[in-house]
Amino acid sequence: MTRKAYMPARARLSRRSLLAVGGGTVLASILRPRVVPAGLSSQKMLVAAEGRVRITPEPYPQTGVWCYGGSVPGPEIRLRQGERLQVTVENRLSEDTTVHWHGLRIPNAMDGAPYVTQAPIQPEDSFVYQFTVPDAGTFWYHPHAHSAEQVGRGLMGALIIGEPQPLPVDRDVVWVLGDFRLEDDASIAGGFGNRMEMSMSGRLGNTVTINGRAPDRFAVRAGERIRLRLINAASARIFGLEFKEHRPLVVAFDGQPVEPHAPECGRVLLGPAMRTDFILDMTGKPGHSAAVLDTFYKGLEYKLVEISYTDEKPLRTQPLAAPARLPPNPVREPDLASAQRHDVTLTGGMMGGMGMGGGMMGMMGGSMWAINGAAVMNDDMRQMKPVLTLTRGKSYILAIDNQTAWHHPMHIHGHSFRVITRNGARTKFREWRDTVLIPPRERAELAFVADNPGDWMFHCHILDHQEGGMMSIIRVA
Fold this sequence. Notes:
Elements: H1 28-31, E1 43-53, E2 63-68, E3 77-80, E4 84-91, E5 100-102, E6 126-132, E7 137-142, H2 147-152, E8 157-162, E9 171-180, H3 195-198, E10 207-210, E11 217-220, E12 225-232, E13 239-243, E14 249-253, E15 256-261, E16 268-270, E17 275-281, E18 289-294, E19 302-309, E20 340-348, H4 359-363, E21 369-371, E22 388-390, E23 395-402, E24 408-412, E25 417-422, E26 425-426, E27 432-433, E28 435-438, E29 443-449, E30 454-460, H5 463-467, E31 471-476
Parallel strand pairs: 1-4, 3-8, 9-12, 11-19, 20-23, 22-31
Antiparallel strand pairs: 1-2, 4-6, 5-7, 7-8, 9-10, 12-17, 13-16, 13-18, 14-15, 14-17, 18-19, 20-21, 23-29, 24-28, 24-30, 25-26, 25-27, 25-29, 30-31
């Protein structure tokens, strides 16, 4: 007798106890961060290999995954801003891989882009990454070879860089958000690289996870203040999280500080690869509970997890003052008056009004997506010429026009940028990011200093879109 795959993400809010485990088990241990003392985290070993982990609760069996260090997500790496990190990556998979340190402004040779910054790590081979971390914040690591399948099978991990003087909180918690497409026996379904999905929203899983597990409850204590770091490590899913009866206060996007503020419309929006740090004060009473809902996909809303208050006496009775702004990272400010402007057009996909790629051409085996008419299929960058060549040290504005019918989280390697306008209107916070989510038929302008030399990948972080052609190179010389 087979069992239905656990927690279909398409189920609606009306389903009782969606994304919940029977018996009200508190899974606080799953959701607590695995803290590594900063002084011990300068040298690490990551082994990429097959393994078995528990994604869904018993009586479902464990799930065969690809993972770092035998866990999903992989080992959480913590160190301090300005420290040097050395990581030896050993490949025990049956195919080549790399590791990309997403969001870090590090030397080009350490970026983990196959055939761009390094040769892929072959099976039974290894590679040593070493670099100094310039910025504090929330980052993550993942493969950049055969990305959609390797991330989709579990290869991901959090990289947390602490500030010299972090915000005072009672707990610093990381949620690595992901999803898996599971069969009835909890095994990961095949079908990676499906061209129909590739031409639309990408591969969405039917089992949404926090730190590698289908969550039930997040245990909290009344009166405590939590710094919650959200990392969207899903290969395609966009999250729009509402913390019912609570008021998150955003303090950082993609590792970069921002003026503390409530999220727009009360919803924390995260495209694939994006991160948000916020302060969450536990204002409920002992024994209370409140839902965290994901309401991004209209008509497919569901409960992600329950915030469950213990019966302990409140940690404090008076509310804390609003947190101070995090200290800025040493990112060079672009000179908008002298910045050179480049237009970037995204085309392709189903219902796209296509230009190059997409539609039936894509379904027949060609590229499905393009950046300024150029496309790379299946992560193969060996024949790709730069879509832009920038002069080192100069300021630039990229005006990105999404002419497709689908969202695209656009990521530039090796740099952070300010989002200065959306659809021609100035942004309120001019936030720094390394990945920007651009809705269908909308535009965004990004400003940055091209101060990190080398060839850098520029792509959509819906990984099926990346592998379907929406990937290019920006050269800084």
